[in-house]
Amino acid sequence: MPLKLVLRPGEKLIVNGAVIGVGDHPVSLFFYNKVNFLRGREILKEENCDTIEKKLYFIIQLIYIFPEDAELNLMKFGIILDEVRSARPDDAELFDEVQQLVQGGNYYRALKICRKLFPAEGGETAKGEKPGKAPVVVTKVRRRSPPTT
What we know:
Elements: E1 3-7, E2 12-15, E3 18-21, E4 27-31, E5 37-39, H1 52-65, H2 70-87, H3 92-103, H4 107-116
Antiparallel strand pairs: 1-4, 2-3, 2-5
Helix pairs in contact: 1-2, 1-4, 3-4
């Protein structure tokens, strides 16, 4: 069974190192073999690596998307992993899991775990909610049909 990705208009995707952009209409892509991909919202640019956690994510991203450079990037991964371990000793179990996933070649899963480690920005929590605000609840309103005369 193929992997199906549905992309919104204007969305970008990296597939095996190639950047693919979507035009004005939604697109469905089907992958029938193994492929390394990241959606635009999962891609971290190097200039946005302002924390050690983001640097760790970025190096795993490079290993995943550009396997031809994996040997060099795996060495960098070890150095950055040591730095982040010393900066966040309370998260040692997560870093152990990330290391095991990278060593096992499961880079996409390692990226998902690293993303959870990003510090909250703009006073938001890890889930993106503003502290102290109740979540918005949307309810469906039923319209009454006009009375028949």
